[in-house]
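Archive entry. Fields below.
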Amino acid sequence: MASPQSGEAYEQENVHEVYQQIAQHFSATRYKPWPIVERFLTSLSPGSVGLDVGCGNGKNLMVNRDVFIVASDRSENLARIALQHQPHSTVVADILELPHQDARFDFAISIAVVHHLSTPARRTQAVAEILRTVKPASPTQEGGKVLVYAWALEQKNSRRGWDTGDAQDRMVPWVRKGDQPQTFHRYYHLYEEGELERDIDNAGGRVLESGYEKDNWWAIATPKTGQA
Amino acid sequence: MKVITANFVTCAVKECKTSPASFPLHFHDAELEQQELEFQPEFIRNVIPRIDWEALRATANELGFPSLPDAKPEGEALENEQTMRDLHRMLLETHVSEGKLVCGNCNHAYMIKEGIANFLLPSHLGEIYS
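PREDICTED_STRUCTURE:
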């Protein structure tokens, strides 16, 4: 885990630079949206405008062409791959400093992203930053919805086999295949049961629905309003 | 970067978000290119209610498009095919391939290179989140 002073520098070395290096191979292995993500995106009303924060290669931009998504990624190499998905748009941005107005969007997704932030404060801040961009509920409209996914500690049937009680902060290898295979290590924080919901609550969000899907914890949240 | 995108981005600097001068960002030295995209009038019709019309008028003006109507098209105006085609062409088919997006509050310039805008802040403008 990063020391408090160096969270940003630590992630630069152990997350951002790795994705720049593995972008193409990583992208070639990521082509199918996860079922809950697909359900969330297809349930949006046509014309909804939202964000995909940490869009990677943009695989979730293929789900719904009736909404408009401004996707962003910290890796320019991944953002360039995501650019191909119409009618959406892709920019390079940092999850802690999103270039978007407050309360502007109908929805946001951030799939398998917040687990790359290296301190509790940065993970909570990332969720708060996403919540800030969606419309809060008002007497006349439903609040904007945010879907967040993070890798679970409890995955004893996975290839990795981690489970309750194991270390949550990990360097996870990525083997880039090719003529000269090369191994890279990415930093991950593995979420334990209830942790994502706790972070969302601390970030000013109200959890509407949450669950576990294929080695990941997920939650759908909306900004808390005065009375909530 | 599609022109529509400028309607949904602003300065990444936290302090600028509360300043009306930070939105929309201003295009400088913009090079435009057209990329054909299938015309979907329903898409335009559905997205228009989410567009900040004042901001779009300012953007269109900076990029040298003919003036947009003062008021956002509503009701019957949304059935006018020419209006929908013009908006489709400007919002979705016109891309800014090179140039800058400049914040009217802090004057920071975000570079657009090969069609992609970069909103990462230099460390002196960013917040420190430990």
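CURATOR_NOTE: The mean pLDDT of chain B is 95.
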